[in-house]
Each structure stands twice: as C-alpha cells, then as structure tokens.
Amino acid sequence: MVRRALHPAVLGSSLLYAAALYAVGLNAGILDIEASFWVVTVAATLLLSPLYHGFVLQWTAVAGGRPAAVGATTIAAFPRLFIGQLLVGAGAVIGAVALIVPGVYFGVRAVLYKQAIVLEGAKPVQAVRTSFQRTADGKTALWASIALVGFYGVMLGVDVLLTLLHSEVAIGVLSVAVSGTLLALLNALLTDLYIVRLQARPVESGGAGA
Questions:
Q1: Could you tell me the pTM of the whole model?
Q2: Cα–chain-centroid distance for residue 71?
Q3: Ordered DSSP codes for 59-107
Q4: Where do the structural domains in the chain lie, given as residue ranges?
Q5: Angle at 131 between CA 126 and CA 132, to 5 degrees
Q6: Distance CA 42, CA 106 (A)
Q7: Quick one: DSSP state of residue 108?
Q8: pLDDT digits (tens, 9 = 90+) for 51-102
C-alpha cells in the first residue's frame, strides 16, 4: 500500500524520535506507573509525539507529491495534535476497560486523526470524526488494522528477542533502528490510506470540533 520509498527526512526523524523515547524510557517505561521516573517518560512522550507527527506526516505527504498540509507548520499543528492524542488515548482506555474489544475498535477507527489534523487542519474532535469517516469502509479499516497489528506484533517480537542479548548498547541500537523504521513505514502507510480516502470521498474537516 505504501507507494514510494521513505524520504530520508521521514526515516531520519523517525529514528531520532525512537531514540528520544528509548532514552527517556530507560529509567521507567510508559507502563511502569509505580516508578517515580514514569511521569517524565509520559510527559516526554506527550510532548514529543505531536512535534514528531506534525513534521513527519507533512514530509510523508509532500515526498509523495501530495498537496501541502493545511496546518502549514508543525508548531501550528502542535496544540491540536496534543489534545487529539489525549482524546484518542482516553477513548481507547475507556473502551479497553469495557472488555478490551471496544477499545481496540475505537483505536482502529480513530487511527487517522493525526492525518486529519496535519493534512486538513481539522480540530481535535472533528479529526476523530473524520478518521471514523475515512475508516468506514471495510477495506480501509482492514488495512489500518493490519498495519497496527503488524507494527505492535513486530515490536513485541523484537522485545522478546532483545531479552536474549546481554549488551545494553546492542539492545539500544537495535531497538531504536527497528522501532524508528517501523514508525516511518506505519506513518507512510496510514497517510497513504488517508489520502486515498480523501480523494475518494472528501469531507469537511476543518470547521467544527474543539
């Protein structure tokens, strides 16, 4: 589904983002809620993610000859991406509490909210609605599901394999290389899916929403 080679700027920024997340997670991972350093890890993730996605999604679109993003700059998209990730994260957690499946469903249907914000200038709530519209057909939802399952499945497998290594340096380098490359591929695939659906069925995304 990804129709082009990854642009060096996309791959490079993805590797830097993965390296930054790995570095801040050394003392406590994002799930280590009992560790005091957990707050720093979560805060860094929340702040770095909008900056990374605001930049990389625009480059992914532009590298494929797509129109420039409505949001124009990464800084302009930052507040909406920050609020959007809180909304989607909360929705996924609430859904996961309700027997897991609703959370997974919500996560898949809302997965394109970042593209709606960056590429169409949508506000957070409208971006989630737009993502639901873009994933309304079974084919798009299936591709999004495959992309997410593939990403998290490979990452889980890599984590298991890395436990066999005894070199912290090797673990760090391999973890950053794999996760950064997969992030770049995932964003390229999801951006392609979004643009295909955008061209097939335009919707108003920049007006309503909080």
A1: 0.85
A2: 17
A3: HHHHHTTPPPPTT-SHHHHHHHHHHHHHHHHHHHHHHHHTTSHHHHHHH
A4: 8-200
A5: 95
A6: 21
A7: H
A8: 999 999 988 877 665 554 444 468 888 999 999 999 999 998 888 777 678 8
Instruction: Locate 187 and state its tokens.
Output: 């964003």
Stretch (H or E) spanning 179? helix 168-200
Report the b/e string of 56-95 with b at 16+ CB within 10 A: bbbbbbebbebeebbbeebeebbebbbbbbebbeebbeeb
CA distance 184 to 188: 6
**Angle in degrees, CA 133, 48, 136, rounded to 5:** 10
Q: Confirm if 106 and 92 have CB atoms less than 8 A apart.
A: yes
38 φψ region: left (φ > 0), alpha (ψ -120 to 50), beta (else): alpha
